[in-house]
Amino acid sequence: MKILLSIILILLSPALLAVEEWHTPDNENLVYMQLNTGTVVLELAPFMAPKHVAQFKALVKEGFYDGLDFYRVIDGFVAQGGDVTEQKVSQHNQQLKAEFSRVTPQDSDFMLVQSPDFMAPETGFLHGFPAGREPVSKQEWLLHCPGTVAMARSTEADSATSDFYIVIGQATRHLDRNMSSFGRVIYGMPAIQALQRAELNNASGVIDDKDKRSKILSIKLATDIPQLQRLKLQVQTQQSEAVQQRLASARALESEFFHFKGNGNIDVCYYQLKSRLVE
Amino acid sequence: MKILLSIILILLSPALLAVEEWHTPDNENLVYMQLNTGTVVLELAPFMAPKHVAQFKALVKEGFYDGLDFYRVIDGFVAQGGDVTEQKVSQHNQQLKAEFSRVTPQDSDFMLVQSPDFMAPETGFLHGFPAGREPVSKQEWLLHCPGTVAMARSTEADSATSDFYIVIGQATRHLDRNMSSFGRVIYGMPAIQALQRAELNNASGVIDDKDKRSKILSIKLATDIPQLQRLKLQVQTQQSEAVQQRLASARALESEFFHFKGNGNIDVCYYQLKSRLVE
To answer: Which residues in chain B are contacts of A262 at CB distance < 8 A?
Structure first.
């Protein structure tokens, strides 16, 4: 009886019930960019920006971005790609209604990490993406952290079409709730960091000489790439024990390497969930 | 009489008394790195870490770093350079006493930007460097922002010698008051961002294959470089009106581009002072 109880307890123990640290992201939400600097994989966020994701995927599907470039690249800020000429015609290149945030749904998997955050009442993870939440207005949104992908726009909220940017410097948190973030880089950030920048004195960041711009050779949906050519990528699962331990350790700075133990606050943009390649 | 008063008022007006936006940094504090990815200029911070700066300059002067490499480069974290073999002999390669912070001197030019900051009671600028300050303990220190240069060390506080790192990702603020920061990149951050990274699955970040590492061709003191070969660099002056206006604008997000106006907080690591090249 005692042995049986032990077995039941072991079977019910948190370690066995725990969520696995790594999971394979859904290919439906993955996009492969071939740049002259390397391969980049984006994970899209249809849960937050369904219209932006649908339009981006439609543009990718028709090859809209192939042969275009990163024409505005400001070190410490963003790398913006797309059609700077605004000449390319596509039925999918339509003005999009802003998707800056969403009303927190009943079944939101938002996982609180930091409250209050510097720029938001709460920050944490949402479907593995760094996210913010405001309990009063019941809004949640994706944070502008390094690797965040969002659609560029002009002054009007509903003016985004096809040009997108990737955050390449210190988090541009002033763009949170101001831009439609629709993805994140889960592989190949070094290829993004290697993109040709605008010159130091070029405030607009637009690289006038087309030949100097880094090239988008192609962007493809993962589902349009033969399985053998896809990377075997996994991403960390926000609810996993390993992630919880990493966050707890980051709060406490318990390693004896740290002589000053901080104040317990965490910057979610620094402690983003990791990716790995599996054999 | 009225005209005379007007002239006196104009002469005394803040615009005329104001500090110039740009100044030329002292060559005594500048160091030029020639990497296989480009030219980088560091501004050193003897006011904060005099022993680290003195040892770094002595090592640079004797050519200690020439031919070494960036052997540990983790995307989103730091690029660490120096002698991974620990074989290179120099009388200047001595263990340094930690210079994590200093007691705020009477004549400190610390300029408060944000209080409280997420990770410190106060953040702002100190001699143009992003800095933190704690009024209670009267300590001030340099922040770990993108572009911050600090000496690497082992677990013990007083163990740094010659290997250094540069922050290349989201600010590693957990290293504030834990490492001796002694400089910042004022030119060539794109060349740092182009450094070869360790592979995704390489947790230590040490690039084992020496041939894959980005190279330090040379590091030289600006004062050892002929004047005509130096860059004509200027940096923004923290007390200038232009900087004040930029910070005020960042707090208010007053441009109509911003539909959500934020909460008035500023991340000093994002709003670092700028550099420019002059003719």
So the answer is: 119, 174
Report the predicted TM-score, pTM, of the whole model to 2 decimal places: 0.94
* Rounded (5°) CA angle A141-A147-A149: 55
- Determine whether the interchain pair A173/B267 forms a contact, defined as Cβ–Cβ distance below 8 Å: yes
User: Which residue in the block uniquely carries the two structure tokens 């640079």?
Assistant: B60
CB interface of A with B, residues 147-206, below 8 Å? 147, 155, 157, 168-174, 176-178, 187, 189-190, 193-194, 197, 200-201
Cross-chain Cβ contact B178/A146 below 8 Å: no
Q: How far apart are CA A169 and CA B274, in angstroms?
A: 14
Tokens of B14: 């803040």
What is the C-alpha R_g of chain A?
Answer: 21
Secondary structure class of A103 (helix, strand, coil): strand
Domain ranges for chain A = 19-277
- The answer for residues whose C-beta is within 8 angstroms of residue B226's C-beta and 6 or more apart is none
| B145-199 confidence digits (pLDDT tens) | 999 999 999 999 999 999 999 999 999 999 999 999 999 999 999 999 999 999 9
B contacts of A270 (beta carbons < 8 Å):
169-174
pLDDT digit string, tens, across residues A199-222 = 999 999 999 999 999 999 999 999
Residues 6 or more apart from B54 whose CB is under 8 A from it? B46
Mean of the per-residue pLDDT values of chain A: 95
Q: Which pairs count as long-range contacts for B6-14, CB under 8 Å and 24+ apart, including other chains?
A: B14/B241
> Which of B77, B154, B257 to probe by mutation at the A interface, max A CB count within 10 Å?
B257
CB A142 within 8 A of CB A155: no
> Which residues of chain A make contact with B250, given a CB cutoff of 8 A?
174
A53-103 pLDDT, tens per residue? 999 999 999 999 999 999 999 999 999 999 999 999 999 999 999 999 999
**pLDDT attached to residue B18:** 75
Superfamily of domain B21-223+231-277: Cyclophilin-like (2.40.100.10)
List strand residue ranges (DSSP E) for A74-212, in order.
78-82, 102-103, 111-114, 122-126, 129-134, 139-142, 148-151, 164-167, 180-187
In Å, how far are A172, B121, B131, B264, B269 from B135, measured between CA atoms? 28, 8, 13, 22, 20
Which residue of A lies nearest to B175 if distances are taken between CA atoms?
Answer: A258
Cα separation, B165 vs B70, in Å, equals 9
Chain B neighbors of A277, CB-CB under 8 A: 200-201
Neighbours of B144 (CB within 10 A): 26
Homologous superfamily of domain range A19-277: Cyclophilin-like (2.40.100.10)
Which of B173, B187, B262 is facing A174, going by the closest CB pair?
Answer: B262
Average pLDDT rounded to a whole number, residues B122-145: 98
Q: What type of residue is B45?
A: A
ipTM over cut 0.90: yes
Residue A66 token pair: 């192939």
Residues of chain B in contact with residue A193, where contact means CB-CB under 8 angstroms, are 75, 168, 193-194, 197
